[in-house]
Amino acid sequence: MRDDIKINDRAAAIQDKLVEKLERIYDPDVELDVYNLGLIYEINLDESGHCKIVMTFTDTACDCAESLPIAIMDSLKKIDEIESVSVEVTWSPAWKITRISRFGRIALGISPK
């Protein structure tokens, strides 16, 4: 799991499954997945199996502001340990290009440093 994502212990126990699902959900404007793009800020999984995702977008005018949260909810519900999912969108802190992972930078042709 990325160091810049706040994650609780229950979610950390299934982090490989979470990352696998999040890496398959692409921001259509940037053509990079939400995980490597750095749109995910927080993942919490409670004792009842509810997973809360806190995320942002690259821009307030993002065309995918409605579709990405739905895609995240649909995808994460397929994980056995997750019963329900909610997505909270935040604009603070604002997304910055520095949130893109090394892999994401290489994929986009940006210097990996």
UniProtKB/TrEMBL annotation:
It comes from the Bacteria. Residues 17-89 form the MIP18 family-like domain. This is MIP18 family-like domain-containing protein. It comes from Streptococcus gordonii.
